Amino acid sequence: xxxxxxxxxxxxxxxxxxxxxxxxxxxxxxxxxxxxxxxxxxxxxxxxxxxxxxxxxxxxxxxxxxxxxxxxxxxxxxxxxxxxxxxxxxxxxxxxxxxxxxxxxxxxxxxxxxxxxxxxxxxxxxxxxxxxxxxxxxxxxxxxxxxxxxxxxxxxxxxxxxxxxxxxxxxxxxxxxxxxxxxxxxxxxxxxxxxxxxxxxxxxxxxxxxxxxxxxxxxxxxxxxxxxxxxxxxxxxxxxxxxxxxxxxxxxxxxxxxxxxxxxxxxxxxxxxxxxxxxxxxxxxxxxxxxxxxxxxxxxxxxxxxxxxxxxxxxxxxxxxxxxxxxxxxxxxxxxxxxxxxxxxxxxxxxxxxxxxxxxxxxxxxxxxxxxxxxxxxxxxxxxxxxxxxxxxxxxxxxxxxxxxxxxxxxxxxxxxxxxxxxxxxxxxxxxxxxxxxxxxxxxxxxxxxxxxxxxxxxxxxxxxxxxxxxxxxxxxxxxxxxxxxxxxxxxxxx
Length: 495
Known about the structure:
By secondary structure, this protein is an alpha+beta fold. It is 53% helix and 12% strand. Strands 6-1-10-9 form a four-stranded mixed sheet, with helices on one face. A three-stranded antiparallel sheet has the order 2-3-4, with no helix packed on it.
């Protein structure tokens, strides 16, 4: 823009000032002289020492992924854990039970009439349980469903219950008994007995193909309350985000449009806003100072203050006849008025001193918009950058979860808040496995920073290509592939 060129010429050395002057404002300068001022300099790889290190890092990453493919299991990340630490659908004895189910806390024992009314298959005085007959009045008593969930002791099930006519064997209590200590060494054995009872199920549905969530609103609130207050219930929150993807996509699109609308508004009113701020600040400061000083000399401030408060004490309310701000002291009021005057004059002088800088800033904004108008492809650069980050981070987090899955999984106890058992988990690694996780994180962060650097270089390359292009009929003619060419150039120079 003309404003940008004028501001830069006033602050830059003569050769640079001549280079940025528009064609209609200066003598013609050969385009090649402007665009290839460094012609003759040999360009070669700039990261010769870094490339072997980077290739070594890629080799280490490949080894980590190979080790992960043999020892990792992604199911350790998202499958539920029963209260004993078994991974539903993975661990021995629960390979065919992939779903996690929170039993209800058992109520009173159900009699034969209650069982029949609930819809259980009866055979005489026996209950048909998965094809086997059991005695519901003896040790196999069936407890009625209660409205409270046992969130501490989830179990693995083959499929989610859909009615109250089925049973699940649910935890009830545990008892620890110590054997008699050895009289010489003091060694003893601790035995734990876990008690289970059959509890009538409640209707539920499968969530994410891994968890049985209650269909009953009251029961569901118990579960969601703990999930939403737990910092470790990431999968639950992620599911909510995925369900609202259309809202997030709409917000991203609106933000994209408003961002560029803001740029065009700034191009139009940046100068008036900046100068208007200086003028308004100067006038307000000077006006306040003059108003305060005139008020202090118009009448005796002490007398006015005495009259003001006397009237307020008699009428029970403060009088509103005072028209000047006052502290009650003529000297202090004069000092305050003088400070406002000095402030106003200072703002005015500061605005005059930084006028060239303001012009440069405003010109830079205008030049930025002109560059985008001449190269509309740059408008899509934030979109390309966001897509790159999204895709890269998506695969990076997926790979991180895969690498973490080489560890042994166990329940994780929540200290800051309560979460139901079966969701939060921790991983423990062998001494030689933890470095694999660190190497993966290092290489992934390096790759992400490399992608950022390539994007920034390509953007700067396209910008300078526009900047040093000659004006033709009041506008610049530049290739729309400058951004892609910048990515190509940085790849050639780096490798």
